[in-house]
Each structure stands twice: as structure tokens, then as C-alpha cells.
Amino acid sequence: MKSRVTIKDIAKKTGFSITTISLALNNKASHIPLETRSIINKAAEEMGYRPNKMAVGLVKKTSNIVGFVLPDIRNQFFSYTAKVLEDECHKFGWNLLICNTNNNYEQEMRHLKMLCDYMVDGIFLSIAARSTEEEERKTLQFLEDNNISYCLIDRDMFNIGKYKVSVNHFEGAYMVTQHLIQLGHKNIGCITGPLVLDDARQRLNGYKQAMKDYNLPLRDDLIYFGDYSFDKGKAGGLYLADKKVTAIFASNDFSAMGALSGIKEAGLSVPEDISLAGYDDIDFVSFLEVPLTTVRQPVNEIGKRATQIIHEIVQNNDCGKKIEILKPELIVRKSTRRI
């Protein structure tokens, strides 16, 4: 394997000192003749020289790298958020390094320590789902102890983050349940997410509050405890179809797609027999055989706000506690109907 070209290699080829090479390549020391600069720059280009960013970072105390530690890159919400963050980071001259934790705390900490070693300028973090409160506190304390600017995205299970951008999931679930009620549904089932997650608890509570506000019975047997997966969604669809519900709110779109499969397996159809709604508005749900009514998270705004928070912390060393909770939007499509 060919070794990386260094300033020493350019010095050997051109005959100039390492100091002169370094100053010329970094556009410093105007006393260096233009002819000398030209020779050095030409040699660097011919030899394929690339500056060592880590070495430059040590001098400037900045890396121009920001990390995004996310729990599951297969989840379209997080992969799309990563795309938005990357676009926003480029506006500040940052490169985004993405790390996937598979919802595992130990893996999350390994990634954070690696990013710390790389002297990143900041970290976007969505906490691993299986983290305990003690583990989340250790995670945030590690970032603060190492003076790393951070912003939590969407997940803060125990509401202890100092910097965070999230969505009002209670309001989103309330809106979609209210929509089903206003279409005339009374027996409305709910497929939850994993209740270790704050967002899943908020969505379940939003469903419950809407049922309560409209004086509809809250039946425990109409709540199926899922985990945001297609398989659990399908099992929930089969279970709730057997309970004779006329509508189902699934706490994310993957669960809703699974529920659609379960409803079909039960010999029923959407929306003729059961109205179905999801949450997230991932790309392809609008192209399903029956386009899905769902709750849209403002992913573009999440990415913009989170990047602005990191930038503000980097510029000012600290910007004080900053928590932004954004509004979701109900998107009505053909999977729900009036009865």
C-alpha cells in the first residue's frame, strides 16, 4: 500500500525546509517568495499531498467534524434526519460522521469515546432505547466532562438533557386519535411503541387523553404493546381485528404497515372494515396500496434547529439550557374513513 505523502516528502523533493513548506501550504508568512510558493504548491499537487486534518485540528483546536450517534440507521426517521443534518452541517463547514448503536448503551459509549478522541466539534445524539436512567446520566456527564458540545435529537428518555430538539409526540397522537373519533369511531385500538422510550409513552398518553376527552371508554384490551417493528405491528393488527375495533392508531408507520398485513390476514380490509393511522410519515407510506393517514414529524426543522444549537454552543462555549419542542402535523390520506 502506498504511504501517505507528508510535508517531509515535499521538502525532500523541492529542497526547501519543512518550516517553509508548512508555511507555504497554509498560506502563511508572506515573506516567502511567490516563485517558492508556486514550486511548493506544484510539487504538493503532483505528489497527491493532502493535509493531515487531525494535526491541523490539534493546532487550531477544531476538527470541522461533527458526529451523529443514532440508535438504528434502518429506521427511516433517523436516516432522513442524518441527511438533513449533513446538509445543515455543510453550511458551517462541518463534515458529519455517522455512528450506529443498534440501541445498545455500550456501543453508544464506544462511539462517543471514539468521537471524543477525534476531537469532534460537537455531537448529535439519539439515546439508545435500552438505556437506563443511570446510563443516560453517565452518557451526558461524559460529554460534559470532556467539554463536547451536544444536542439530543428526539430521544431523552428521562428528560435530563440540557440541549435537545424533539417533537410534541403527545400532541401528535392526540391529533390522530381525535381525527379517528371525529370520523365516528368509538372502538379504537392502539399499537404502542416500546414504552421504555419517552416518545412511545407520550404517544400512548396522547391516545388515552383523546379517548378520555371525548368520553369514550379506555379499554385495556384494546391496547397492544408493540416495539415499533413490522412484526409486532402485524401481531397487533391480528389481535385488534379479533377485538372488533373499527379503527387502529399504530404508534409508528412500520407498525401501521404490519397492522395492515395483519388486518388483511384476518380477512378484513382498510379502510372499509378498519381505519388505520400511523406516525412519522416515512417516505413510502403515501405510495402504499391504501395511502396511510399519519403524523408527520418536522424532520427538516429538527435538523436545522439542532445544528443551530451546536453552532451556538461552539461559538459561545455555552448557550445556556436550550430545549425546543416542535409541532407535528396530521396528514390525512385514504386509510381512514367516516363510519
Model description:
The chain is α/β, with parallel strands linked by helices. The protein folds into 3 domains: 7-51, no CATH class; 63-167 and 299-326, Response regulator (Rossmann fold, 3-Layer(aba) Sandwich); 169-297, Response regulator (Rossmann fold), CATH 3.40.50.2300. Helix content is 45%, strand content 14%. The protein is built from 12 helices and 12 strands. Strands 2-1-3-4-5-11 form a 6-stranded parallel beta sheet, sandwiched between helices. Strands 7-6-8-9 form a 4-stranded parallel beta sheet. α11 (253-265) links the parallel β8 and β9. α1 (7-14) crosses α3 (34-47), α5 packs across α12 and α8 packs parallel to α9 (198-213). The protein is elongated. It starts with 6 loop residues before the first helix and ends in an 8-residue tail after the last strand. The relative contact order is 0.11. The mean pLDDT is 91.
